[in-house]
């Protein structure tokens, strides 16, 4: 007889509320919870039993017995594995200093309690090594989210993107720019957008391909990949030229308007059409619609980060919303103050020594305080700025995520210690000295916060598989062996006590609730910049140096960057080196998400592989016909860096002369087709945004031929 249990999905940290079916303690199936505030379920969550009980799960600690990269290990006890790691860290620290130890965190470190107790300003980088004395905590923030989430909004508004929320329900127009909400984890915003559209809200999607949201939208603005910044500046040009901007807001709450006005004169609709492929008529009508349909809200995400002016592109979009008076008004892009949390958290200061990457990307370091992982190979292979000898990877697959992975493999072979904490054997794990098995969130006790003040305890649904442990407790044991155990929770019970230390009564209420509790909310407040709630000094205005929206950023100029949202056309593109463009005439965009996987995860799960069993390159019918390529053909994608096989999907969803290539392949446990198709063998380690250091994943060049 099976039993039903109300729970939180444990496949990703999104926190979707579900109903789990179990028999004798084994998870049989899951479905979205009914009548729950955040009841939802994606295809990955539906495959939870296959993922939890996959034969590929790492079930015991492993210690390397072969050469790095061979993947030969022996089983070990937890004490032996953790003692080995701690002793080696101490040994390296004594010989080279604590800065010789580095860490890298990824998707596996996104869980709520991990973020609260172990993660830094970028919400991912571990602070464990910072407490040990090393500045070299890094994360997936070295190539994802930080441009959109921190660098662009903070240099413009003084506010991170987590504090800029779209108000779909009260808007007249929803603009989705460089995002595809159906693939979000969790998909809460997607549901809100769909509901808003049913209630009559108009949607405009701006994207380089006809994604799901572009297909649903009332209007698709098809822009050449990597040129969104030019489009945003072209829209600003029209708004200023036609004087349809919010004059009161501009005069009272912005700095740098005259400089911006002068700069955007060159971005006429005619010129922007040549750059972006968007017609001048559509540019003018779009600008007028955004400026006059007030209120207009915005949903953008990480899609604009991956070009040579990624940070500035995003700034230009944010500036457009400020100029048109759609900032912090009902139905616009609202400003949300961070919630006051009841947790007891230890503040761990930055070490005095700077991490690798700080000198090259000083603003990145100033805002985040983390090392930049694009500079990790140089630290290992060239001892620049000093020797780095050890790396702890927590829940991340770097060799399928970073450009030109052979460079990282070379660095990993030179390390004195590489430790991987994960649920599955990634490509990184093949080079590890020690692999430590982590649980899925179905096997943990924790808690989850949701938008709007809703909070719920995460209760263990199934017992840990094998000897797998909660990441929090793995790091807690390691911290204890390094003399830092007092800084971190040592049990799930202590975790909850610390998380609600300032409100223990709330914890008791949550324990008594099978579902969750919605905390009392504050009345909606708008135009908060006119009050004193945004600035830490209690003054009126925005939390920027000027107290205003900085169209010309003083923070960027402080570090030697252009203060205006300067556009840079992709260095490797149609307007770049013409000899390269002749040999590689297709614009290459990588990383478009698909439903069955999240990056490199789950490409070994049979049920999910039924959705898409092979990595694809999406190619326009005209480009396919010119190359004799038909639907389903195996093809070779070539760039200046390398060549990789994919399978052709011939579709009008991509623009002529452009292709979209799936990312995520390259892990040894994946099926053969995915395992042999690591798209980052095509991308460029050296071609980056100069402010963020992010690789140019969506504006490179390639050629395709039938295999």
UniProtKB/TrEMBL annotation:
Q: Which UniProt keywords apply?
A: Iron, Iron-sulfur, Metal-binding
- Residues covered by the 4Fe-4S Mo/W bis-MGD-type domain: 2-56
Q: Which domain of life is it from?
A: Bacteria
Q: Which CDD domains match?
A: MopB_CT_Acetylene-hydratase (cd02781)
The entry sums up its family as follows:
Belongs to the prokaryotic molybdopterin-containing oxidoreductase family.
**Know the name of this protein?**
Molybdopterin-dependent oxidoreductase
Which species is listed as the source? Answer: Acetobacterium tundrae
């Amino acid at each position: 007889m099976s039993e039903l249990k109300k729970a939180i999905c444990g496949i990703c940290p999104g926190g979707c509320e579900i109903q789990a079916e179990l028999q004798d303690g084994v998870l049989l199936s899951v479905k979205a919870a009914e009548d729950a505030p955040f009841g939802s379920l994606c295809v990955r969550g539906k495959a939870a039993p296959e993922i939890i009980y996959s034969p590929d799960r790492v079930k015991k600690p492993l210690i390397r017995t072969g050469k790095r990269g061979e993947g030969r290990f022996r089983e070990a006890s937890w004490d032996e594995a953790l003692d080995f790691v701690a002793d080696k860290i101490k040994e390296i620290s004594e010989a080279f200093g604590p800065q010789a130890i580095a860490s890298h965190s990824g998707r596996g470190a996104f869980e709520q309690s991990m973020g609260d107790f172990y993660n830094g300003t970028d919400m991912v980088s571990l602070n464990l090594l910072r407490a040990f004395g090393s500045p070299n905590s890094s994360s997936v923030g070295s190539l994802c989210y930080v441009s959109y989430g921190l660098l662009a909004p903070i240099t413009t508004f003084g506010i991170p993107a987590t504090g800029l929320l779209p108000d779909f329900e009260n808007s007249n127009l929803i603009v989705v720019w460089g995002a595809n909400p159906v693939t979000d984890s969790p998909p809460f915003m997607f549901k809100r957008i769909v509901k808003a559209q049913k209630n009559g809200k108009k949607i405009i999607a701006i994207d380089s391909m006809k994604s799901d949201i572009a297909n649903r939208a009332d209007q698709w603005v098809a822009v050449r990949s990597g040129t969104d910044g030019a489009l945003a500046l072209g829209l600003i040009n029209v708004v200023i030229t036609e004087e349809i901007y919010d004059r009161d807001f501009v005069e009272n709450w912005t700095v740098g308007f005259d400089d911006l006005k002068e700069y955007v004169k060159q971005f006429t609709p005619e010129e922007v059409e040549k750059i972006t492929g968007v017609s001048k008529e559509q540019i003018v009508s779009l600008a007028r619609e955004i400026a006059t349909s007030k209120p207009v809200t915005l949903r953008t995400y990480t899609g604009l980060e991956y070009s040579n002016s990624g940070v500035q592109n995003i700034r230009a979009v944010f500036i457009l919303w400020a100029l048109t008076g759609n900032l912090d008004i009902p139905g616009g892009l609202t400003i949300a103050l961070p919630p006051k949390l009841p947790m007891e958290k230890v503040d761990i200061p930055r070490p005095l020594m700077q991490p690798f990457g700080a000198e090259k990307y000083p603003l990145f370091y100033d805002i985040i305080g983390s090392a930049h992982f694009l500079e990790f190979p140089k630290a290992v292979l060239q001892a620049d700025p000093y020797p780095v000898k050890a790396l702890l990877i927590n829940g991340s697959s770097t060799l399928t995520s970073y450009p030109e992975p052979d460079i990282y493999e070379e660095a990993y072979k030179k390390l004195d210690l590489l430790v991987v904490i994960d649920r599955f054997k990634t490509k990184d794990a093949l080079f590890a000295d020690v692999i430590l098995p982590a649980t899925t969130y179905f096997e943990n006790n924790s808690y989850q916060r949701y938008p709007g003040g809703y909070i719920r305890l995460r209760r263990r649904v199934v017992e840990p598989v094998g000897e797998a442990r909660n990441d929090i407790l793995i790091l807690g044991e390691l911290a204890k062996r390094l003399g830092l155990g007092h800084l971190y929770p040592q049990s799930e019970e202590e975790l909850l006590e610390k998380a609600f230390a300032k409100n223990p009564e709330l914890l008791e209420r949550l324990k008594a609730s099978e579902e969750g509790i919605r905390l009392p909310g504050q009345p909606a407040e708008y135009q908060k910049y006119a009050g004193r709630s945004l600035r830490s000094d209690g003054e009126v205005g925005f939390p920027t140096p000027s107290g205003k929206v900085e169209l010309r950023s003083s923070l960027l100029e402080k570090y030697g960057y252009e203060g205006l949202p300067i556009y840079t056309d992709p260095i490797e593109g149609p307007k770049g080196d013409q000899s390269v463009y002749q040999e590689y005439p297709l614009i290459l965009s990588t990383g478009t998400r698909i439903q069955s996987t999240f990056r490199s995860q789950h490409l070994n799960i049979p049920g999910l592989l039924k959705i898409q069993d092979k990595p694809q390159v999406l190619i326009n019918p005209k480009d396919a016909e010119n190359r004799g390529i038909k639907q389903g053909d195996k093809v070779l994608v070539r760039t200046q860096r390398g060549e990789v096989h994919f399978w052709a999907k011939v579709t009008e969803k991509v623009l002529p002369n452009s292709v979209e290539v799936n990312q995520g392949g390259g892990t040894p446990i994946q099926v053969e087709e995915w395992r042999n198709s690591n798209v980052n063998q095509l991308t460029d380690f050296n071609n980056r945004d100069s402010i963020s250091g992010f690789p140019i994943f969506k504006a490179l060049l390639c050629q395709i031929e039938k295999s």
